[in-house]
Amino acid sequence: MAAKDVLGRRGEDLAAQYLERQGLVVLSRNWRCRHGELDLVATDSTRLVVCEVKTRSSTRFGVPAEAVDRRKAARIRLITRAWLAAHQVRWCEIRFDVLAVVAEPGAPVTVQHYEGAF
Predict the structure, then answer these.
(1) What is the count of structural domains for the chain?
(2) Which PANTHER family does UniProt cross-reference here (predicted)?
(3) For residue 92, which of 3, 40, 67, 82 sits 20 to 30 Å off, Cα-Cα?
(4) CA–CA separation, 12 vs 84, rounded Å?
């Protein structure tokens, strides 16, 4: 497994743990369809919370959340429709969040949670 994949997996693990500490229940991790992948799908018992996780080893080239642009958000919305269909969810309130994880060597890991990011 490539170093960036290991870092990404670690970031997703930390993001899932963070969400669970906030009282959310993770329903799906790395759910895939022909359009792509959803990192985390959770619920706060009121709504579905679809989370894109971006992990970086430093902020030298910007904060991780900046990687979620309009095009990426549109793709996540498309994949979410496929998730809803696959899980036979007819309608529910949905919030789209971004979790930015920075794991700099020798420093504490930080998780920034952007609720309703797009």
Answers:
(1) 1
(2) UPF0102 PROTEIN YRAN (PTHR34039)
(3) 67
(4) 21
Give the DSSP per-residue string, 9-22.
HHHHHHHHHHHHHT
Q: What is the CA radius of gyration of the chain?
A: 14
User: Domain containing 35: what range?
Assistant: 3-114
11: nearest Cα among 109, 107, 96, 97: 109
Q: CA 56 to CA 37: how far, in whole Å?
A: 19
Here the CATH number for the domain that contains residue 98 is 3.40.1350.10
| Residues 26 and 14 sit within 8 Å (Cβ to Cβ) | no
32 Cβ neighbours under 8 A, 6+ residues apart: none
